[in-house]
Amino acid sequence: MKGKALILMILLLLLVNLKFLNAGSTNFVLVDAYWTIPLVAGADNTLIVKVEYKGSGTAENINATLKLLNVAGSDLEANDSYTGSLTYGQRLQFSFTFTIPADAKASYYNGILTLEYLENNVPIVESLEFQVGFFGSPSFSIKSSTNTLTRGKTTQVTLTVTVEESPARNVEIRVTPASPFVNVIGGNLDKSGVVEVGDKLNISLKLAVDSNAGDSVAISVTITYSDFSQTPGTQTETIGFNVVGYQYPQLKVSLSPTKIVSGKASYLYVTVKNTGGSMARQVYATITPSSPGVAVLQGSSQSLGDIPPSSSKSFSILVKAEKKISGSATLLLTLSYYDESGDSHATTMSLGFEVERGYTPILTISSSTKSLPLEKNTSITIEISNIGDGKAEDIVIDIISGQGFMVLSNSRFYISELEPGELESLQLEVYASSIFEESAVVNVRLKYYDQYGEEYDDLLNLAFIVEEPGKPLLDLIPLNDTLLPNKVNKILFMVYNRGYGPAKNVTVSFASQSLEIGSLIGSSTYLIEKINANQSLTLEYKIFIQPKVYGAIQLIASISYQDEYGNYYNRLQGVGFKVEGSWELSVLQTKTMPAILFPGDKNV
């Protein structure tokens, strides 16, 4: 039993000792310390020490011992106590009376405040070390994080105030302008309690320098304080700054290459260089086309990040100009960014480049066969020609039955490519029906690509004359194509029967569309009894062309006839003529100089 009791006692002592070892705890903090009267050497002096309890429990029965170290070669010690209790946030004031040696002449000495107390009935010992001011007054040194400010800008500045010579109490710092053209934003600091020698107080403020400022500005730093003898003091320092002009970022842009081909998507590379004297931050580029027919397919918005002075960044854009575009084109580039002071900027500039006309394939169709026999299967050849200056690729040809025309053979063809000037021949078996006896039309759809990938889709057609053996086929052919205004003109028409049978009861009529263009003189209609196959005759009309008509006019001709089987044929066609004028001199006014006076006239 005695052994167990001994072990329990040892454990209890260990726990108590562990609590005593916790002398570095922060349950109490120093609030202030000062002498009740100005310090007198060789006499008794009382030092007031204020502490604040920050513990989580309840502190009671507090014994305080203050030891001043190495005062004129000896340690001085004084005691005070408090039998009550404290909770979080309560403050406690101790009084310590010391007999100060006559030769204690230092500006301050180090002190150790030892506090022994119970916290929730558990004994605790902790120590607070601080400087105790004796003789001399605190002084302050001030340093600025920069000695250069920028004209027209606001600069963040940190002032570091260092306590020297003797500890200070209740320090207040105020910063104000000491010269025109500078404003202080912020710059106040209050530090209550003890500020020891070597402590540094940092004051963060902004200095705004007017754009009209000269080469220097200054601020005033005023520090008010008390020493340990409760004597107030003030120290004022003036801090000067050099003022320089601000070097803004300057962004310049170049484009490469400066030439693209229309109809083809091409990459252009934009390089942004900072030729200014400061960083361009968070640069953002936006590109829009300003020329019609030009599109930015890719890369119209780019984030370039930060661009330091003399540095550059590049990005690519994919641009395409329509086929019809050629000559010069323009893109608008907008750059937005921030300078080093956080101010935003935006600039817009034009990027010019040249658009060369792209090579364009143009496909056309033709046939050496001009006529088809009626209601009979016939083989014909259709030629596909590239009359453009660009290569056509992946050509798909669809032959579509049309007016009076039917395709009996394969109607779809494929040609891999056609160079400019090349042609391909297609063989077709066709049939001309009797729906439209005189003509038949074949429709040809062409789908192909140029060398840049541009797609083309064309619908072309070919007309054929449909001939029936023994049938007449009359052509009305003008023999002159030029008329004169303000004159009576002769117009000659040849009526030619290129059919296989005679045309009977032929009627040929000719008329002007408007009297404002011209008027026929004489009969407008000829009646011809018969025109045999391969026979022709000439008809003459007279027409007066109005004086104000020039350029080209369209007149109307019609022809109707019968074959020998009684079938009727009618055709209406427009006939175009050039109208060419000639110079004429007209007298508008006559005047006699000098004026002639006749007898009886009055002078005016």
List keywords for this structure.
604 residues, mainly beta, Immunoglobulin-like, 5 domains, 5-stranded mixed sheet, 1 helix, elongated
Structure description:
This protein is mainly beta and 604 residues long. The strands form ten sheets. The chain has a five-stranded mixed β-sheet, with no helix packed on it. β42 (551-562) and β43 (568-579) form a beta hairpin. The longest helix has 19 residues, at 2-20.
Topology of this structure?
Layout: H1 2-20, E1 28-35, E2 44-53, E3 59-71, E4 74-86, E5 91-99, E6 108-119, E7 122-133, E8 139-144, E9 148-151, E10 154-164, E11 168-177, E12 182-186, E13 189-195, E14 200-209, E15 216-226, E16 232-245, E17 251-256, E18 259-261, E19 266-274, E20 280-289, E21 294-298, E22 301-307, E23 312-321, E24 327-338, E25 344-356, E26 363-366, E27 371-373, E28 377-386, E29 392-400, E30 405-407, E31 412-418, E32 423-432, E33 439-449, E34 455-467, E35 474-478, E36 482-483, E37 487-497, E38 503-512, E39 518-521, E40 525-531, E41 536-545, E42 551-562, E43 568-579
Parallel strand pairs: 9-16, 18-25, 27-34, 36-43
Antiparallel strand pairs: 1-2, 2-5, 3-4, 3-6, 6-7, 8-10, 10-14, 11-13, 11-15, 12-14, 15-16, 17-19, 19-23, 20-22, 20-24, 21-23, 24-25, 26-28, 28-32, 29-31, 29-33, 30-32, 33-34, 35-37, 37-41, 38-40, 38-42, 39-41, 42-43
